[in-house]
Amino acid sequence: MTVRNLRIYAPLALYGIFLLLPFYWMIVTTFKSSAELLNTPNPFLIFHFTLSHITDLLTQTQYGRWFANTLFISVGATVLSVFISYIAAYAIIRLRFPGWQAVSTAIFLAYIVPPAILFIPLATVIIQLHWFDQLWALIPIYATFLVPFCTWLLIGFLKTVPRELEEAARVDGASNVAILWKIIFPIAVPGLISAAIFSFTLSWNEYLYALVYMSSSGNKTVSVGMTTELIRGDVFQWGQLMAGALIGVLPAVLVYFFFVEYYVAGLSGSVKE
Amino acid sequence: MTGGSRLGSRFDSPRVLGYLLIAPAAILLLGLIAYPLIWGVWLSMTSATLGDTGAFVGLHNYAVILADPVFRGAAMFSVLYTVFAEAGKLALGLALALLLNQSFRGQRSARALMLLPWVAPTVLSALAWLWLLDPQFSAVSWLLVHLHVISRNLDFLGTPATARASLIVVNIWRGLPYFAIGYLAGLQSISKDLYEAAAIDGATGWQAFRRITWPLLAPITTILVAFSSIFTLTDFQLIWTITRGGPTDATQVFTTLAYQRAIVSGQLGEGAAIAISPIVFMIVLAFFVMRSVRER
Lengths: 273, 296
Prior knowledge:
By secondary structure, chain A is an all-alpha fold. Chain A is 77% helix and 1% strand. Chain A has 2 domains: 2-50, no CATH class; 61-272, MetI-like fold (Orthogonal Bundle). A two-stranded antiparallel ribbon of chain A has the order 1-2. The longest helix of chain A is centred in the N-terminal third of the chain and has 33 residues, at 63-95.
């Protein structure tokens, strides 16, 4: 019994140390006095607790603005993408319009085109559209990688919804639109939640597009603001940087812990479908 | 049905409604993915700079980058980074999945906590790694010195070999949970009967893994590796935050170099050529993903 326990918990502890170390480090650094950051008998402990890094971050930098920007963009991109993806997935799975197979393949291909090969030509498109340095423009831009992902996830989900329900409704004279909103929508809620939390996490995580397409300080996201404005030259304000990282990690982690089962189901689903 | 029912029923036909519902997705993907993709190929064959549309120069940019030792170094490190990081994620992810697939107290919390690196925004955790690997105040060095593994602080990001190794380790850190969850789903779909039959035949744990687990996980392995490789090969956030491609271009990859040439220096044509070049590898990877998705 104890040998078996040891064989599980010992490797698990090693994984835990490796996987959680950066988060522990963020917390420790955030609440440590500046003097202690550079000179300490043990860097993993806090000897002089302080909140000054957090108050400095919130009062002396634009961090609050960047946080609000990231929240606005992430929520906007999530709502837009889940809506577009839901109606697209329904059309592909249930309406079987001519060419649905080509569309579904195209969406899958769009899913595996990484932003890294698009960001340069997309920059010229953004400039032509006068979207450059417009915060809201990140919403449709983020939708380009969220919609393929969500549509793919929802296609997999809608496949599992039995047809009998809508056939019964159809016999009763319900239109396709009514079926879309009144019959399928309530059943699809778990799938929609999965799609929404993934969209939120991916938007919160995005960096390259926001880095390239936003330029004024007031339009930056947390990740971009921190790496372009809090790091200047070789001077690193580690207390402020780790406080910013910690606060910036929180929304993603809170959403995650609140919906952890949807996450696991969605991730497993994206592998299976 | 009353009133505008004729219009309503035409609008409700699968064909019309189908196109209507797919239209927003189609406009978005055609306008902001397909068009930029084609435009990017064109751009890579021009002398465009930021602020000047430039002229058609054929394959000149490709000839320039292929002769450029910095680009060749970036291509080489991109591949090296991908191969080592994928191997690490596969091995450690699978081992973690096997561990989490057993029943023990706290299994659900362990599973939830292990996914954190994948959930947290990459740039923010990369900043924590940057500070952990600091040349003077590195906590990792402090730990290794106190465990008597090394005698003095290592400058992790200061020399090419250690900087490369550090980035690979951080990439494994970030992607391992994704592999673990994928494999965990795969393990849970394998019938317990197979293991019972193997046990009756006197198979050892390793034999059961070799003959049952590994072959049955093969399709998932293909998807996980191919999919993860596409994004590792074109990684930007991690490397840009931690090393910016340094020291002296030792950790430059396709995307960091494309960003520097196109956005920082304004050489759009050359940058576009660099950004497009990993497509050669990605077509191969996409083929594997498509094939295993179809097979399922």
